[in-house]
Design brief:
mainly alpha; 128 residues
């Protein structure tokens, strides 16, 4: 009976991630967070705001719209689904990027956030 318990525990852990995958995932998450810190700094906001959950959304909305309180639109049922797409599009425009880059921010957000954060892109402000 003891062996069946050990076999069951082995089965549970065999389907998991390897140590290399876990390390790669952690490094990737740290790179994405650091890219967001750099984006916030480029926009003249405190970089630490990127790691504070609700405050980061407020600051990101402030960066792309000029008014941070519009982040409350996330609470409206249908708008809450569309709002992150609009924020990513407007984020690209706030840094003077073209339509294709903005689509990249919408569909491949982590990759294009890192490109935006680590590149020499300059913040030009929200488009009115």
């Amino acid at each position: 009976m003891d062996n069946s318990l050990i076999d069951r525990v082995k089965q549970i852990f065999e389907g998991g991630m390897s140590a290399g995958q876990i390390i790669f995932s952690i490094v990737l998450v740290i790179a994405i967070i650091y890219a967001q810190v750099l984006i916030f700094r480029k926009a003249g906001e405190p970089g630490i705001a990127a790691i504070i959950p609700v405050y980061s959304t407020y600051i990101l909305t402030k960066i792309v719209f000029g008014n941070g309180w519009l982040f409350l639109l996330c609470l409206v049922p249908f708008v809450g689904w569309i709002f992150p797409l609009v924020i990513n599009y407007k984020l690209g425009k706030s840094f003077g990027k073209e339509f294709g880059f903005c689509l990249g921010l919408i569909f491949f957000s982590p990759i294009f956030m890192m490109i935006l954060g680590f590149s020499d892109a300059q913040y030009i402000g929200p488009n009115k």
